[in-house]
Fold Beta-galactosidase.
Amino acid sequence: MSTFEISEDFLLDGQPFKILSGAIHYFRVHPDDWYHSLYNLKAMGFNTVETYVPWNLHEPKKGEFDFKGILDIEKFLSIAKDLGLYAIVRPSPYICAEWEFGGFPAWLLQDQNMKIRRSDETYLNHVSDYYDELLPKLVKHQLVNKGNVLMFQIENEYGSYGEDKEYLSDLKQIMLDRQIVMPLFTSDGAWQATLEAGSMIEDGILPTGNFGSKAKENFANLQAFFDKYDKKFPLMCMEFWDGWFNRWGDNVIKRDPEELRDSVKEALELGSINLYMFHGGTNFGFMNGCSARGQIDLPQVTSYDYDAILDEQGNPTKKYYLIQELVKEMFPDVEIKEPLIKHSLPNQTVKLSNKVALFSTLETLSEKVKSKYPLSMEELNQNTGYVVYRTTVSKDKEEEYYRVIDGRDRLHFYLNQELKLTQYQQEIGENITVPLVNESNQIDILMENMGRVNYGHKLFADTQRKGIRTGVMSDLHFITEWEHYPIKLETTEGIDFSGEWEENQAAFYQFEFIVDDISDTYIDMSDFGKGVVLVNNVNVGRFWNKGPYMTLFVPSGLLKVGHNDIVVFETEGQYKETLQLVEKPIIKTILEEEL
């Protein structure tokens, strides 16, 4: 039986072991592609894969768990083991990862008295319930149980959030009580304040650092922290950032491959490394995270390409070959191989087959909920997506102004099903002035949840509760008697294309095409405004013509030989009668005046 322990060095079967790890998030890569990505990691000469575990996908509703398909972490770990890869698993309740709500399930927001990431009894009970389901699956894959998991993370970058050591100890004990016996670690920014706040060094738990350059300086900080507590630990960068994430409306961030190679070499000369990301993948569905910037939250894009070692499709970039050469140079005994390469479908045009306005299919798409005042998305037991709020108002004067009070994140205001105005976070609450022609008028407000923050102090702020949270005012009073239509768009179920289509309304568009040989593809959304796309009943993510990404990646595993179906939900009234399937991503350059 193999052993792994942490002393002055990492010891595998009693011998010093250099961890050469790369991050692949199983939940961002189609299961059919796990082998491809993991093989390429091993072929580059690396020996370990690292992954987070997203609580919000595994327990989307309290007490309802999912470990199937793209969430089958056991299968992912088994494929890695079969390829000769060890694993580092980070199951902490919070993962950041530029992921919706940092991995927390949105139903936690229903309890406004509970405090997350603290020694709060209610919160820890939820964590315990989740770990009762998750950890037994991971226990089987520990190295001591003939699996491949070397170590587990307790919390993620906690030193950038709090310093509640009782909370960290509680998490540790929850893990130990559920038979986690492999070494534990924490990861934080590699400077004194975060290490002091987020580590458990006095309990003998390994602190690791997160950084993407200046390894000598950062490892020196980490070593000084060890020395302060008279601890002898190996140096490891748990997240060596080889690229970066992107937000809507910003230019794609790129890192020079040669500079990265030199920075990785500097780190490997001193310690072990986990490249974040090795393969970034895709934020399928509504799982993109959001950056907090003052009063404004800036949502991140669907692609998690990250300018990583493998591109979004999973193919090697120039960075891959440079780091593979570096491994061969520094560790000549390590076996390296040629990577696997995937191909895309040839470019083709797909024609529109059906279209229907949102309001024409609203009753078939959603189950109506009535209440006196508007309910938030969380109060509607909805995690992500959209909500239509509907009410009827009488004409008091020729022109009236309305205000949506305390709404998130973006709204379309319709009067008698005619779009009058769109507001984003910074405009919501301002006057919406409209002429009233009829004696009785229908108001529809389409609210979009654009993603919850994944990092920082706003994690559990009220701003992360979505939809209309206070109410809608006419003149100086709140309007009552509302109908709610939650639009989850997890599937295409309920969309009735037999209804009418109207210009300048949110609408659904169906495209159908035939595939003889299955390969990956990208859908060019340049001619559409904003919304989401579902391929063969699976939500592949958001698009927005702000850019920079104008395409959505579709892995081959979502396609099938023969008939295939694409449904576009578009909110801006901008569409085209054809869609283009293309071989490569299309990236828009954002001009200086647009930024």
Observations:
- The CA atoms of residues 63 and 77 lie 24 Å apart.
- DSSP finds ten helices and 31 strands in the chain.
- The mean pLDDT is 97.
